[in-house]
Amino acid sequence: MVLLLLHHLGLTSVHEFADVKFICVCGTNERAHEIAKAFNVNNDMRELGRSRFVVYKVQNVIVCSHGMGGPSISICLNELIKALNMACNCADVTFIRVGTSGGIGVPPGTIVCTTEALNEDLEPFYLTNIMGKKMKYPAILDTGDIEEEIVVVHGKTLSTNCFYENQARTDGAFCSFTQDDQRAYIRKLYSIGVRNIEMEIVTFAAIVHRAGLRAVAYCITLVDRLEDQALIPPENIDVGKLISTIVRIVGKMNKGLCRHCLAFGTRRGKDLVTRCELRQHDRAEDLWIVAGDRVFGVSEFLLEHPGGQRSLLKRGGGAMDCLEDLAFHSQKGRWMWDNFQVARLVECAPG
Ligand code: R2B
Ligand code: URA
What we know:
This protein is α/β, with parallel strands linked by helices. The chain has ten helices and 16 strands. It has a five-stranded mixed beta barrel. Strands 12-16-15-14-13 form a five-stranded mixed β-sheet. Strand 9, helix 3 (179-191) and strand 10 form a beta-alpha-beta unit. Residues 100-102, 163, 167, 197-199, 222-223, 231 line the site of uracil (URA).
């Protein structure tokens, strides 16, 4: 008898998760197939599981559908994260939500990269109830800051529990507000920086963050809700543009070009420094340390470092390579280091 390990993914084995670096999630099975095909340049795409969701592996990428809404994506993410844990993959894994959404103040077909996910209270938390206890998890995302040639709008995303009234639509079975209320609400969303509405990102961000992993979200818009509520027919929206953007982003990250220098979160880490420059940053108020070729500015962390100030000070200016120390830290700790990266170390130019 085959023991079904992960019921909703339809997975009976997790060994394929051991070398995974990226997990792309999207709403439908068809979209998951399209995304996996776009990654399939080496002809190594395989379907790993099919039940409520469908799971593909191609290169070091898992592509999985998650259905609609917070409850559905939460089941999907629980099983994907469990698969990573069971496969002992506690390495650097990035989850990418690839989706559709209603835009606010951006033309249909815009790719919105979520900077902050809001719940229906317009707060950046995923609210849930566990055994009668109200739980509130912070919905934290990395903001992809990736390719200048791709037009991506950065903005907040509102995640709702239903597509209709909760997204201020008057075209569902029920409507408890006027068109004026609708317009005022959408304008209010725009004024606080919301650029799109969909149904999963707040749950996605909080669950992936809770697992200590990295989450980014890119959604294409199907309508500008400041103008209209009717969606543009799918054939008139270039979802392929979103998919090829994701493939390029993952490709760059895989080549190591973008992970720390070009990509996520801050723009820090773009600069290159030589060892001579590094040596000059050896004082508490201007302290840099090095791990391999990554240079970290740690002055602001000195007082908080659990190992004490001295252990950082004696490594200042690149006096010791901290690669082994870095490996010693928990995954969360290593990601904290990411925030402190200021540069990459390069060899001094000869002469
Ligand atoms: C975007 O599109 C779906 C609703 O039509 C939902 O899954 C979402 O977030
Ligand atoms: N998905 C949503 O949730 N809302 C839209 O307006 C479009 C797609």
